[in-house]
């Protein structure tokens, strides 16, 4: 009898706690909505409506996250602020800086209505517009960028691209996990655009400009430019090659690389989304065309997809020798794979790098996926402009507040999506 009474009381207490929890959640939601609307009103004079709509989900998540206190992060003196509170304070400034940038260099490009003339291929990769990188980073991120993509580069700088951004600072940071981002670009036939690009390079000091025309079939030259510059001016432990329409979960990436370095540092690394049995294109009208003189085999050896692959920097001397012995072909990632095969390095498949890039059908596309599916991948393809900032904030929140995704991960609609393709 006493046991039944206690059980009944326990059920009533649990029910009461659930009701109190729901009431508290409702109160917090109302408060957050008020803060959110105030935030939008405050930015009304500087943000376009379209931009606010696209970034609203990120803002709301950060406002909700600001109620969480991270006791591990304390200021040296004075009152302590949690990491999530710092995220909340920093968002408005970053969005304003992004919008301000769109009114400067990028706006000049639009106003001048710069038209590029048809471009011819060139093979000149012996000139740099960026000096050495100090301090030497643990990870160097080489981003292939089109000269006209001013805002793609700016959004990367304001999010995951720069280690010194407040959003990337916390108790997990150390010299062993440092990173630096550089953008690799070629030249154009427009003198005005080239001048704007040089201005940007002088301001940010994170652009390497090669003496070749920036065309698709010159992408292999762009990779070779990065290898040459890194070998001469930078001595990282690891290098990630990616594109300016890719998002890099840089905090998770450097953590994975550090763990790899501790246990397997003596083994050379070449990892990514590995492509196998890819046929060499012989159709001269196809932009992937490669002649029999350059590649005699019918299929390429396995190679990592060009949207994102990471490799050991101590392979640079051997890779540069390989680049002189292996023909340069216009398929950038396959060309790099030929270099790796030439020096005897086998690629390692990592299902967290570009996991959705080859998904077939709209229902499996990146835009249709639950937001929580963006938390674990190390590199995602198809993220541009201000969505770089939004994705970075969302990933940070989901990483440091894992309960946000615990409910979503258990739902049937989420399980219907393939975690990799």
TrEMBL record:
The keyword Cell wall biogenesis/degradation belongs to this UniProt entry's keyword annotation: no
Subcellular locations according to the entry: Golgi apparatus membrane
GO cellular component: Golgi membrane
Record carries keyword Chloroplast: no
Highest taxon, organism lineage: Eukaryota
Keyword tags: Glycoprotein, Glycosyltransferase, Golgi apparatus, Membrane, Signal-anchor, Transferase, Transmembrane, Transmembrane helix
Molecular function GO terms recorded: hexosyltransferase activity
InterPro entries for this protein: Glyco_trans_31 (IPR002659)
Chief subcellular location: Golgi
EC number from the UniProt entry: 2.4.1.-
Residues that span the membrane, as ranges: 21-41
Membrane topology: Single-pass type II membrane protein
GO terms for biological process, alphabetical: protein O-linked glycosylation
Record family assignment: Belongs to the glycosyltransferase 31 family.
PANTHER family for the chain: BETA-1,3-N-ACETYLGLUCOSAMINYLTRANSFERASE, HEXOSYLTRANSFERASE
Protein name (record): Hexosyltransferase
Annotated source species: Stylophora pistillata
